[in-house]
Specification:
By secondary structure, the protein is mostly helical. The chain is built from 13 helices and no strands.
């Protein structure tokens, strides 16, 4: 219905401009006929002064053409005024057309953003991305249940001063999350598969990073859950610890790219109407909630 109204409005503007064009042509023709009529009339009066100027002038032809010159000057001035008027009309029509174009471009951009989100949702629901989510959940569970593994994971997000795989982290993970052993019965088994699963977690982070940039499709994003509540707490934990680790690297901004994790999770919180954490201590209070601890088997180091 909105598009139809815009079409009608555009058609009306075009018709108005066409009417102005026809009026211009009519006025020009009338002026041309009038000028030619005065010119012919001046010659008639000049040759036969007794018709209108009998006894009133000794130079009928010169006076007749002098009056015609004055008429031309007046018509020329009127023509200038009319030209300005026509230009104003054309500028108004151009402004309206530009407004329609801007509106159309805005609608196209909005539609394009919505299509991007829709394609991302299809990707999120794909069979391949299900593997990404499963592997990411393993990494997230390990990071929440072991502070040592979490520090190792965060260090791998910065290409300098990276930590080695922390031996003994599997025992800490299983102590806080006994069910983890159902997927990785030994530390060696976990270590052998950990890198591939960590890479999949990187893909998940990149997915949410791209999603956070879809501000123009706000209404669409907030209508798609994307299971954000499952990832939110750990993404905030990574965001705070990554920020601290990045600041510890001397002159990092001169030779390292920085991922704005905090900006990403803040934007995602806005999409879903959630209150962002102000600090890591604020996050720890949330992680210390009994329901959260039981759900994610959080290590004491993340809560204290």
């Amino acid at each position: 219905m909105k598009v139809s109204d815009e079409s009608v409005g555009s058609k009306t503007d075009s018709e108005s401009f066409s009417v102005s064009t026809r009026a211009t042509i009519v006025i020009i023709l009338v002026a041309a006929v009038a000028v030619c009529g005065f010119w012919i009339g001046a010659w008639v009066v000049g040759w036969y002064p007794e018709l209108l100027l009998d006894g009133k002038t000794s130079q009928p032809l010169a006076d007749a053409f002098g009056s015609v010159n004055a008429l031309f000057a007046g018509l020329a001035f009127a023509g200038v005024i009319y030209t300005v008027y026509v230009q104003i009309i054309e500028l108004r029509a151009t402004r309206i057309e530009l407004q329609h174009t801007a509106t159309a471009n805005s609608e196209m951009a909005k539609s394009a953003n919505e299509n991007v989100v829709f394609n991302m949702f299809q990707t999120y629901c794909s069979e391949y991305f299900q593997t990404v989510k499963d592997h990411s959940m393993t990494v997230m569970s390990a990071g929440l249940s072991s502070a040592a593994y979490h520090e190792y994971l965060v260090s791998r997000l910065v290409p300098v001063r990276q930590k080695n795989f922390p031996h003994g982290c599997w025992d800490e993970i299983v102590e806080n999350n006994p069910r983890f052993a159902d997927f990785h019965p030994t530390e060696k088994d976990f270590k052998d598969h950990e890198r591939d699963k960590r890479y999949k977690f990187d893909e998940l982070i990149n997915f949410f990073t791209m999603l956070s940039r879809q501000g123009k499709a706000y209404e669409v994003v907030k209508s798609c859950d994307f299971s954000y509540s499952w990832w939110r707490a750990y993404m905030w934990l990574i965001a705070f610890d990554y920020e601290e680790r990045y600041q510890q690297v001397d002159n990092a901004k001169d030779y390292l790219t920085k991922i704005d994790f905090i900006g990403v999770v803040r934007e995602l919180d806005k999409f879903y109407g959630l209150k962002s954490f102000k600090s890591k201590d604020d996050l720890k209070k949330h992680l210390g909630n009994d329901d959260v601890v039981k759900k994610f088997n959080i290590a004491p180091a993340h809560r204290n």
